[in-house]
């Protein structure tokens, strides 16, 4: 989400193989990110061949309490909860 997006629900998605999985800009309004599986961002080929690329499953740059996260599954995140994924 970029710009001033507000009142959006990002839910029940499978996000894999992108440079960044879910990216939330600093200027967005109140949004909800829930029940997503976000794994493998960046894809393993990018990780191996371009280690300087800093990409994550979830990147949240919005102010605290601005974006609500519920029941998401991921491996790497910044500014967002990322629970351990069980086998």
Structure commentary:
This protein has 1 helix and 9 strands. It is globular. The chain has one helix at residues 44-49; strands at 9-11, 14-15, 22-24, 31-34, 37-38, 58-60, 67-70, 73-74, 77-78. With 87 residues, the chain is mostly beta strands. The model has no long low-confidence stretch (mean pLDDT 84).
Strand order of the largest sheet: 1-4-7
List how many beta strands DSSP finds. Answer: 9
Query: Approximately how much helix is present in the residues?
Result: under 10%
The biggest beta sheet reads: 3 strands, parallel
What is the percentage of strand-forming residues? Answer: 25-35%
End-to-end distance, in Å? 30 Å
Number of helices: 1
Poorly predicted runs of 5 or more residues = none
- Order of SSEs: EEEEEHEEEE
Number of domains: 1
The mean pLDDT is 84
**What does the overall shape look like?**
globular
Task: Name the structural class.
Answer: mainly beta
Specify Rg, calculated over alpha carbons. Answer: 13 Å
